[in-house]
Amino acid sequence: MILVVSRIRRIPLVDVKETGLTPTEASALIGCKEYTIKELARGKKIPHYRVGNRYRFTRSALIKWMVDQEEKNYIK
User: Fold this and answer.
1) Interior CA angle at 61 toward 24 and 25, to 5°?
2) Among 16, 40, 60, 71, which is disulfide-ready with 46 (CB 3.0 to 4.6 Å)?
3) Mean per-residue pLDDT for 21-37?
4) What is residue 28's three-state secondary structure?
């Protein structure tokens, strides 16, 4: 029994929101319009992936992208 429990504890848990934010959720996180998010994704200027014809975003990639953008634009 202890062996089974120790194996279960080693399995990494996936954050539900890490599995794929919609453009609406991504726009709320970033603070811009959904249209802007879709345009950035179409132009391959923001990290995203597609499920069929729908855009999806991961929270960690978007946060990293925002930090990178801030460093690029404001920190010299």
Assistant:
1) 10
2) 40
3) 95
4) helix
